[in-house]
Amino acid sequence: MPIHFANIEACVFDAYGTLFDVHSAVARYESRIGARADAVSNLWRLKQLQYTWLRSLMGKHVPFWQLTGDALDYALDAHNISDQSLRDDLMSAYMELDAYPEVRDTLSRLKDAGLKTAILSNGSPEMLESGAASAGIADLLDENLSVEEVGIYKPDPRVYQLAVDRLGVAKERISFQSSNAWDAVGAATFGFRVAWINRFGQGRERLTDDPDVELKTLDELLPIVGA
To answer: Is 14 a catalytic residue?
Structure first.
């Protein structure tokens, strides 16, 4: 039987990997990196995530922009790449990542259905604003919510509470979408209805609460929330 989320009033989205292709920055400069491009991109993303968790545990928060640069430096060093111009270009590209093909149409249809929409992300406010503008989706979002408002990264429940407070919608009436398995679990544990957008064929986490549904792309969400 098809899954349906009843009484949803808002759809909230993780940004990186869910709306924006985190590997599109390196892809733009693949010719300058060569055969190591995929490895650099994957390590950059891995260290970026690891640093969010480690800094949260250590109580040493820094904005996501700085953390992203630290993760890139680690990845470049690991592959013996010393090119300041390339580093600068990669960081600039991260401010204007490509959106996945179905993102704009999906958001448009959700808005047409009368649902509130928002980003809820680890990203710094300026990163989220730039990313939404460059992807052409800023007009389809009611809020760009950043962890900087609470000073700790996902999956701390204070981050998810931001969506409840800022949108004025009860958590059980919010559908949350993330491509990150750990983020989907965190949101489910908080009490959102959760669609895990498993773009990358990840394995299911062995943690607490499971997401309600696993999808491949965002447009599969539309019938689930009645849009």
So the answer is: yes
